[in-house]
Amino acid sequence: MTQPIIGYAGMTHLGLCSAVATASKGFDTLGFDPDAAIVAALEAGKLPVVEPGLDNLLASNRGRISFSAEVAELGRCDLIYVAPDVPTDDAGGSDLAGLDRLLELVLAHSRVDAVVAVLSQVPPGYTRMRQRSGRALYYQVETLVFGRAVDRSTHPERFIVGALDPRKPLPAPLDIHLRSFGCPILPMSFESAALAKISINCCLVASVTLANTLAELCERLGADWSEIAPALRLDRRIGAYSYLTPGLGLA
Predict the structure, then answer these.
(1) What is the pLDDT of residue 249?
(2) Dmax over Cα atoms in the chain, in whole Å?
(3) How far apart are CA 214 and CA 198, in angstroms?
(4) In whole angstroms, what is the distance from residue 186 CA to residue 173 CA?
């Protein structure tokens, strides 16, 4: 097929950063949000999030991305990511109501042959329960980091894609889009993809917790963690990119 048109529904941190990254890869991109005030601010160059380099990346790709609050615009997209930020409460519970409303809106106003992918973080079982007969609905794991979202969205390490049948080839719009980033693509079941996201977070939490524990031990014993960490980074079993800097715990 020709170059697909990519849409993102939900212009908060995840959707906006991902949309700008897609435009930077040469795709005509739509940033949709049902909130006309958000769209008006974006059109005026006022971004609702602060990320290093995001303003410049958007400015350099402004000719390939448009913003709209008109649902009819979704009809011109070949692939639509549903990507609002999902709020969580103090107990870690996710409020999926906004995501559900936006997903319903996208499914109701997109073409039947358009591919729809949930990009927001969801619990295992979410995407399977929302399958529609005759529609292609996928789940793609997001791994953006606040403060590094531009780098993470433009240079991803890999794509994890949850599918109803991961043995089948990905539909052309999704496949073309993902391959443009030049990184591994890992299709798997919906449940495996959702649990892969949770597993990544668990490993990160464990790394930070371990670094904090060992740094505290250094203080008690008179050792220097800044001397020890470089030795760990040079161990291939741990690696150069390990979370070995003590800091606030993750939640």
Answers:
(1) 61
(2) 65
(3) 24
(4) 16
